[in-house]
Amino acid sequence: MQLQHLTYGADVGWSQPPAGDLDGPQTLVLVFAAPAFSADSTPFDSLAAAFPRAIMLGCSTSGEIAGKQVHDASVSVAVAKFEHTQLRFAATASADATDTFDAGARLAAQLTGSELRSVFILSDGLSVNGTALVDGVARHLQPGVIITGGLAGDGSRFQETWILDRGKPTKNHVCAVGFYGSRLHVGHGCNGGWQDFGPERRITRSAGNVLYELDDKPALELYKTYLGKRAEGLPGTALLFPLAIRPDGDGHNALVRTILGVDEAQHSLTFAGDIPQGGIARLMRANAEQLIDSAAIATQQAFSGSPRDDDATAAALIISVSCVGRRLVLGERIEEEVEAVLDGAPHGAVHVGFYSYGEIAPWGPGGVGVLHNQTMTITVLSEA
């Protein structure tokens, strides 16, 4: 595998020219860009010209990860030319949350194949139900396919997100790349670092990713009570206090859920993924040390069992998808999180990623990909 990492800024241009000699059908161009670049296609046009035969996909972000740094108003790009791995691109529209499961099924239909090893998904961050999207993909692929990815971001504004579909910023879409071949190794890890606090409450009324009632009381009003003065900044301030959701109420396998929107008329909260009626919900909080430690743990998971994890010069593409809520908690210490990722990686690795509205990764080895929120997720691609 050959790798190149470059960045772009509207004022400074490219950190280095895109290496067109890496172009080819087995080349992946992964692009994470500030939301404002939907109105400035210059970097995408440059990449398309340099890599006309490659597969390019990307999305808007709540912060661009480039090596050990986190940027805003930039574009972070990884170019990976695989030697033994075949690639396939898939994309489809997803107008709203009710179509999300079917959108996942449509993606899977474009990617299915006997040698499919892994799928990396990028989705519009506001118009989809991330749980249904991953479920729609997973149910229509053969068992054992590793599913990772994330939902596009828009800072803490929650106004407009987009994905790159054939080099064009596009709203209400999802896209994915499939990786095929036995020589590909895919490592993955995820860890949150958040802790529960406050009373547990039963989810007494919900529909898909919309929560209406907790303990038979309006969910929005209860949430505002906990936020106090911070309630004036909803939905952005909700990123500091996500919910832990236990679908079966047994205290295990809690998923973290982030609020994407509020409906004052319905007294409801809209989340990035499903809120199962009958489950248990509890508020969460974290501090900087916990979040940084969780990034290191996720990295250890991702590199565990790698066939080349003892080779300090091994070429590996590391893709970090972390949540905008973690960025708000970490503040000026945000780069310590991404430093924790590279500290556990070989020197030959290229590290890119983004801050998102939802993260996709399996729970553990052999697990099915699921939607997370407020979680650091790591995908590592290498060839044996």
Word description of this protein:
With 384 residues, the chain is an alpha+beta fold. The chain has 7 helices and 27 strands. It folds into 2 domains: 2-191 and 289-383, no CATH class; 195-285, no CATH class. The protein has helices spanning 42-50, 100-111, 130-138, 219-227, 288-303, 324-330, 334-343; strands at residues 2-9, 13-14, 27-33, 55-60, 64-66, 69-71, 74-81, 86-93, 116-123, 146-151, 163-165, 168-170, 173-180, 184-191, 195-207, 210-214, 217-218, 243-246, 255-257, 259-263, 268-271, 280-285, 316-323, 349-356, 358-362, 369-372, 376-383. Strands 15, 16, 17, 18, 19, 20, 21 and 22 form an 8-stranded antiparallel beta sheet that branches. Strands 2-1-7-3-4-11-12 form a 7-stranded mixed beta sheet, covered by helices on one side. Strand 20 (259-263) and strand 21 form a beta hairpin. Helix 2 runs parallel beside helix 3 (130-138) and helix 5 packs parallel to helix 7. The mean pLDDT is 91.
